[in-house]
């Protein structure tokens, strides 16, 4: 470490070195924005920052009194409701680690996560109690203590079988002194991967990474004071991309959205003045293709981060005239969420519309809290040419890369091999350094020795006026090994035949890239809107 020759007396101390943590944002907001609306959930829950801080403190106190100690894990199975926002601050304010669990998981996976993460307590929405109870029963009753979070305004009154959240919180002390991290490398959150290829892995976040994610997002999203943010990204997905931790930094308002529908989104924009939200491309499709009765007018532009899959150019072309400015971002659970953005350049303004929207769908360039996001040859770790053609793997390093996988040093070492986090995503890099994802390595289709990007084929099919959603996977073929097979959801009242879509694709794609089979069905999706291609691959094998 470089130092001056004499640094006597220049050591770190309590005055000049404080561990970075997103908890500091809410502490600061409580006295800078005490009367500002912090959290809104319909008409029944509207709390200022002073009230939000007091409730978080009371919850932290109640958790401590119930036996939660620093280093313990507290799980949640909650939708995007106020209690989940409060838990994001209150759990780490006890020194514990927050484990926000996907509410759509099966009983066995919930059991595994409880057991693997060693959750001591779980905050559970009434709607999800049956799954949680079954999971704990499979643990011979050795699972976490349940605190029930009722939501009677949405048809989920308390069962009475467990301590209820509001009563539990009322038993806490609003003057509780938060336990702040002494080392910013201390664990803040535990998030489990989707586990589509085996047991889910526990991704561990530290306070430093979450703090720097909030700061970097402010810069990238060009946020100013008092934005109004709608919680569409589930808080169990990369902790809502860390946006809930970020909002107090700006005195912003969090508008909770339990059920993501077009009507709920349009109502929130019109009634609450929502200015920002994040979501998968499926959310954009929902807003474009909804019934006219679900739409509401608004007179401002809503800024949207979209991720999970590159948004088709057709979707971007349809949604932006409705009042939404969409920015493509990219990241993974292992990177706390988004780490690259398609930063727009003014020189692209005059390009033809189809070309502009194709650029907007690029994966982009690294965000401010990152050190590198590059495309490398996974075997040699050498950079691929920036020619917009040569494929490699996206490799990442920076402040918001996970600590590692809980209790899995082998997987951690493999993920960090060569000094980068290996994303598993195949991409190209353009001459202007912008990345463009081509596929997950497991989703690439190899037909007759030729690599076919499912993303490219999906983009073409999505531009057909009848197509709402589509996914392309490999279908086994005796001659070619694999051929593209498309699964398609049509827009309401729209019609199209298999022959029509194949012919349409053939006008825009090379023959070997054209789907050889089109199946019309509802696409299986995760709770975050990602299409579950592993299920479609299973179906394709039977066709």
From TrEMBL:
It holds the Pfam family AMP-binding_C. PROSITE patterns: AMP_BINDING (PS00455). Residues 456-530 form the AMP-binding enzyme C-terminal domain. GO terms for molecular function: ligase activity; metal ion binding. Residues 29-406 form the AMP-dependent synthetase/ligase domain. InterPro entries: AMP-bd_C (IPR025110), AMP-bd_C_sf (IPR045851), AMP-binding_CS (IPR020845), AMP-dep_synth/lig_dom (IPR000873), ANL_N_sf (IPR042099). Gene3D superfamilies: 3.30.300.30, N-terminal domain of ligase-like (3.40.50.12780). It comes from the Bacteria. It catalyses: 3-(methylsulfanyl)propanoate + ATP + CoA = 3-(methylsulfanyl)propanoyl-CoA + AMP + diphosphate. Its EC number is 6.2.1.44. Keywords: Fatty acid metabolism, Ligase, Lipid metabolism, Magnesium, Metal-binding. It comes from Lentibacter algarum. This is 3-methylmercaptopropionyl-CoA ligase. Belongs to the ATP-dependent AMP-binding enzyme family. Homodimer. Its cofactor is Mg(2+). One of its GO terms (biological process) is fatty acid metabolic process.
